[in-house]
Amino acid sequence: MFWLLESSSEFRIFLLGLGVVCAVTFATYVYHRYRNADKSYQFEDRTRIELSDVLGSDEYSHHISRTRDSHVKGLEQSKDPRQRLGAGRRGWF
Amino acid sequence: MVKCASCGSTDIRYSIEQRSLACANCRSKWNEPALESQVDLTSGIDSLQGTSMTSTARDIAIEQATVTLKCGGCGAEVVINTAETAQVRCHWCRSYLSASSRIPNGAVPDAVAPFIVPREHAIETIRAFVDARKFFANPKFKREFQPENVVGVYLPYFVFDGNASAMVTGQGEIQTARWTEKRGENSHVTYYAADVYNVGRSFKMAVDDLLLESSAERGNLQDPSQTNNIINAILPFDVKGALRYNPNYLRGFTSERRDVNVSQLSGVVTDKLLSIARHKADGLVGQYNRGVRWDTEQVDLHGSRWVTVYLPIWLYSYYQKEKGLKHFVAVNGQNGNVMGSVPLNMPVLALVTFLIFVIGTVVGVLLFLMMA
After folding, report:
1. pLDDT, averaged across chain B
2. DSSP string spanning B303-322?
3. At A2, is the secondary structure helix, strand, or coil?
4. CB < 8 Å to A54, chain B
5. Domain coordinates in residue numbering, chain A
6. Which terminus, N or C, of chain A has the lesser number of Cβ atoms within 10 Å?
7. Confidence grade of residue B61 (pLDDT, cut at 50, 70, 90)
8. How far apart are CA B84 and CA A17, in angstroms?
9. Which of A34, A74, A84 sits opposite B274 (nearest CB)?
């Protein structure tokens, strides 16, 4: 977290919240280690899948000349493959 | 077969040490043939069309002229046609069958993957798992922890093979420049420039041996009253090595019955296929170093193949009464993988967390002042 801070003044402000960050990190770690409520079988990765007829389209859209975002906007919303996107048809035969 | 081929005895049990069925009367040992030798579980997935399922994967019949009774004597599941016979004795061991042992038809699986991990090994695995998590464990749980109470359970699963097409679209970015600009006396801000692309990926997927819980209770990973995700987390199993079902494999173990039909899982399957498609698509867009944000996802299932199977799990459960929550520690009966949920001692955890908060805050303020 603190490595994302870009200036020494931001780092100093971060130091004031060090206690909260440490406490939350510790409690989260213990909860996950004991309860394992976030664990499940990683079927997306571990199931045998053969891909074929792979097609791709990469169409240039525009250029961003100046942004503070280090990643494409909205990346977090689609990062988890189990989180369904708003749009999209779900076919069943 | 349910009877011993050598002596006709019905006193047959599965021995984990010998990894075979063993007749208690004549000491014969044998195994049922592998399911793979009778049902094709691997080839032809990419040409599947429609739904193909074994007879045991068909819908569970609720009311029929035939009923299935579980024999208390030998464990066999005996199908009786009530229109033709009033006989209520087991075909195999001649025990009288109880009407209270009636079970819905269609829920006998195609195959069973027998236990390989011995009970003693499972006990030690569970003990080690919990011992490593005792400091913050609920004191009542620690007092009552008896890993010897572990139970061998066969849980029902569907083995799903699927032929599907998937398409995802979104927007990806490739970084073209990165620089920092000074802002104020001590501040620097990083800026980026990037080319933006509209990205699409489509492909066909041949999904081999995706395991789906066929017990409604176990399949509900969101159930707030039990930690079913723990059982899910110890997957997978070697389904291809599963043996043709014989009720004798279940003797000495408990088992749960399938109560879900294939048609009820259409939503679950679509959801899993979409997740697989997104995961695979992520692996096809490596050139976008600023990532790809997916906006649409689509999957069409052209064909599927369904097989039912019993899979072995060593299960230790603990009911936390004050929370109404059943915790599981589960060991995969084939490869020994373990996962568990240990109830927490919340007052102790809160106290230690508070101490860390205080120490962290004091250190943080001191560093803040020093840097000034």
Report:
1. 88
2. EEEEEEEEEEEEEEEEEEGG
3. helix
4. 201-203, 284
5. 1-36
6. N
7. low
8. 78
9. A84
Q: Give the ipTM of the model, two decimals please.
A: 0.84
C-alpha distance across the termini of chain A, in Å: 46
Rounded (10°) CA dihedral B242, B27, B18, B16 = 70
pLDDT tens per residue, range B14-24: 999 999 999 98
Q: Cα distance from A41 to chain B (closest Cα, Å)?
A: 4
Number of C-alpha atoms within 13 angstroms, CB side, residue A63?
4
Contact between B246 and B112 under an 8 Å Cβ cutoff? The reply is yes
A81 CB within 8 Å of a chain B CB: yes
Alpha-carbon distances of B166 from B42, B50, B81, B203, B261, rounded to whole Å: 21, 17, 46, 6, 25
Close Cβ partners of B24 (under 8 Å, ≥ 6 residues apart): B9, B11, B12, B13
Nearest to residue B137, comparing CAs of B316, B320, B313? B320
The amino acid occupying position A68 is R
Distance CA B56, CA B75 (A): 18
Q: What would the two tokens of residue B95 be?
A: 């025990």
